[in-house]
User: Fold Surface antigen (D15) from Acetonema longum DSM 6540.
Amino acid sequence: METIRRCGRVFVVTIVGLSMLFGVVPAEAAADFTGKTVTAVSVSGNAKVSADAVMAAVKIKPGDTWQLENIKKDIQSIYELGFFLDVVANFTDVPEGVKVVYNVVENPVYKEVHFKGNNAVKTEKLQGFIKQTPGSLINAKTLQENLRDIEKYYHTEGYILTRISDVATTPDGVLTISFNEGLLEDISVKGYEKTKLHVITRELKLDKGQAFNINKVKRAVQRVYNLGYFEDVNMKLLPGREPNGVVLEISVVEQRTGTFSIGAGYSKADGMVGIIGLGDNNFLGTGDKIKINWEFGGKSDSNRDYEFGYVRPWLDSKETSLGFNIYDVTYRYNDYEDGHLESTFDRNRKGWDVTLGRPAGEYIRNYITYKDRTDTYEDWVSGLNQKDPTIPDPSPADPDNPGTISNPDYNPDYLKDNFGTTRSITLSRVFDSRDNVFSPTTGLRYSLSAEFAGDGLGGDFDYDKYTVEGRKYYKVGRAHVVALRLTGGYADGNMPDSGKFSVGGSDTLRGFNDDQYKGDKMLAGSVEYRFPIVSKVQGVLFSDIGKAWDGEGYKLNDLETSIGIGLRINTPIGPIRLDVAKGHGQDSTRTHFSFGGQF
Assistant:
């Protein structure tokens, strides 16, 4: 009797080599029965698997001519059923021809599975991939597919170095699957000079000695870049000391984060005025943000204006942030009513605010802000004069003694309703998954905020104000981006002019004046198509829609629209925005120039 065998050591293998450990005995190992007639075909050794199931995989039938290649194919087909550890073809020479018997050795009966080395993925999750039924034969084909699915899941979750290092079984059907997840052995940071090392490493949120995850590494690089301290951030994977271990090397290129300006002006009314501006988003390399603007000199207190702001992004190990602002600023203000300029006057805002923030997940932060602000009507400039009940008589009977007349524009309730002290608490929640906060190409940002003024906090006003904003970014091709933004707001109560929603200007409705529309309700949206022009210069096509108003309901039919074109330029002193827009119904185009990133 001659034999051809198809066998394999199924249960002490890696997934990569599972199908390569089985071989067919060369033809030389068996006598040559070529040309003889197959008189009978049967199977033996099967206990759990029915003979019919095995024979269904066999192509050779009685009466066929014996050929070695056909025998090999049958052995392969039987083995691919997945139930057998060994497959042997035995041949018996009889006067009528050749008898063929396929002798099989069944796999063990499956009992349970154990996992070793799976620190990154829970055992319960991995068990869901094993499609073996307790009490039935282990199916090697199904098991191979299960192992392939496990590795695919690991890689999808970012554990790209993970491999199954061993699969073993015991005679009583216990499977043991071992993993090498690929460790992050160490982290190295290069290129920093001004920035303190801990300011970078605290953003990484990567644990040495844990399984390497490419998704977490990419997010870590994003977090470092989004600090705004670096012109470029790159990563490199270096071989570690252990097999399948890596060392992460992060290289940064620092950029200018501080600004300083000094200036002076002179007028007959105010005399000599000095201006100093100082700001740094990475103060002394600590990651803290500071800004100071101070206007001094002149003949009146109104020219001694100042603004001071400070933010500490990491107050503790839980990434609690603290920021505060102190200000006393007088500025010229254009007051619009239903979109029409009513008056121009100097107004002062004086007060302070403090904000605490804390993350509620990788992409979510919650904030609480307390504000104490006082707005004062200073000097009337032009238009309606709401400050003085009397004005000089424009047509006096006695030019040498002109006297005064009653001011027809004077509204005794205007100052009381719009100027005074506001004390409020604002609660905010922000989700931000943008890949680049300065020039996003993908991701989503939404924010919800609720401001409660008065309600036992004191002050002159009592109102509730709610704002929601959503932004979405789509990458088109290699470097083109479509950006969408939608904002809505609602407020009720006794709200001053300074607290109302405003629409118009470079940040909301381009092609219209700053704060041209105000009210206790607001709806605004923008769509931009951004495209590269040259290095550090980006072009923009955009359209805006929106309005703010008082009264009931949302007046969607009254929304204003505009279209325009713009440039975004990255400079050593920060990003610059230049937009030219034409508002619907406006007589001419309007140019908007501002510093800072785009939405």
Observations:
- The CA atoms of residues 83 and 563 lie 69 Å apart.
